[in-house]
Amino acid sequence: MSTNVIERFLKYIKINSTSDEHSSSFPSTECQRDMAEILYKDLKEIGLSKVVYDKENCYVYATIPATDESVKETVGFVAHMDTSPDMSGENVNPQIIENYDGEDILLNKELNIVLSVTDFPYLKDCIGKTIITTDGTTLLGADDKAGIAEIMSMAEYLVSHPEIPHGKIAIAFTPDEEVGAGVDRFNIEIFGADYAYTVDGSSIGEIEFENFNAASALLKVNGRNIHPGAAKGKMKNASLIMQEFISSLPENERPENTEGYEGFYHLLSLNGCVENCTAEYIIRDHDREKFEKRKNLILSICEKINNKYGCCTITAEIKDSYYNMRQKIEPDFMFLIERAILANKASGIEPKILPIRGGTDGARLSYMGVPCPNLSTGAFNGHSRYEYACAEYMDQIVKVLIKIACSINK
Ligand SMILES: [Zn+2]
User: Fold this and answer.
1) Tens of pLDDT along 298-307?
2) Does the annotation count 30 as an active-site position?
3) Of the listed 144, 150, 176, 177, which one is catalytic?
């Protein structure tokens, strides 16, 4: 008996698997294990031969054996089991709206929470379709349980159709993606894919293989505090010196002033007094050269400040976080993008190549040796009570995944 993608999805969103950015354990929350265990069972039930549950680290891996032994490659599919700590994922109570009429959707009458077409105009793209929303009190968990359900349905279809030729297919479900630790303990050998796709995007047809290059910068100013009455020529006010640093960065290169491929400096926190002051920044740019220039600008502003106020007045500790996967995909793996484009077109979907203004597990996997672009899930407004999924999109995405899995490269 086969389970359709929506049934699976509704089952998975009922399981609380919120991750926690403040936790120091791995996985960050125990509840993610509940999800892992169910996925492990479901993969076995589908009839996959090799299913591995790394119980300690909370990863689930599975393999669909090749039906055509002459295919030399193994393509993989990855989705994450956790949901964002930004919003509760407990007691998700989905509302299913069939034949959506394009009007505002009342999520919660008592709390007067409305999913409004004014705020989210792309809701109109789903007119006539089936929309699955929250009841306004939790997130939906479509990010990324829509991706999980779609990969599961793809696997079930391929296992029950051994007459369709394809190579070996690898599947992995990861914990803690939302807290940036999704591939920290990922086992590439068990996974066994030559390249893979994360199924963790949004609107149908989106294909993403460019993300930010990312770094963090910790700035510290050491001031000199002296009684203000006797301060002339002696006091160095750390907070004011930090202000000089901050105002030396270009004002139009902040998150609130940028979009598309425009990079930025983002001030995360600022703490200071006369004696000392610290500022935390993140630096983002799709272009590697511009990314390096951004880091150099921070260092040269520090140098100017030190020339003015004395050596070591300000220090900068810059650490790279992750890089744009484009650098890994463009040289040899553009066929992955080509395959995704063809699979979408063959399913009647207009493909859209978009840059990600963030990072993905796939970006880090790409640098671990498994090039890994991102595909859409058919869900919107992740991390929020306004999250929703479109049933017809999810159905179509299963077909796209099957087509990609069966794009043979001998
Ligand atoms: Zn996600």
Assistant:
1) 999 999 999 9
2) no
3) 177
